[in-house]
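Exercise: predict the fold of this chain.
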Amino acid sequence: MECACDLKPEEILVLRTILGYVFKVKRSPDVEELESALKKPRDAIMSILDELEKKDVLLRKRGTQEIVSIYPFSLGPTKHEVFLQDGTKLFAMCAVDALGAPIMFAKDAKIISRCEMCNQEVIVEIKNGEIASISRPGAVICSTKTQAYPAAETCCPLVNFFCSKKHASNWIAENARPRRDFKLGSVRDRFPQIRECWKAYGEMLGFR
């Protein structure tokens, strides 16, 4: 997800509650815990979770109510680590989400990921809402042109950092079918749009 979607007030409240819980206890709340925190009946909470999943900002483990991702974060390890200035370590769903997370919370951060082709580290530092440094100056983001749902399962695994345009092009040639479904952009060129989208998302959720 590169831009904030249209969310209703009750959906925003549930998202903010879940994210707050994740930060505090390092796991997602179950339905009973949401009932207690929100003072809402189970049916109402389930309905809101269903809507959030339809809008692709939340994903539950299939066949259960266990929340496994809530944008921009995965509740399990990914290759995209985000270290906020307060020491909090988070896992982003994809390269775009990793760059957006510091903006969402208006915090400085260090992002540590890896080139999908050669596995070399790609480190990006965000300070005052700007890219302060990139360990690989030619780093690019490769992403899909088309949207598929849910993105956490179908798109996010394909939105990655590469240390160079050459490595990204080589990866597409070797792995992607059809090749035309992918686009490349330098991290610095992509960042302004990511920043605006995630700023809006953070403001909507009340984190900025």
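Check your answer against the key: Residues 187-205 form the longest helix (19 residues).
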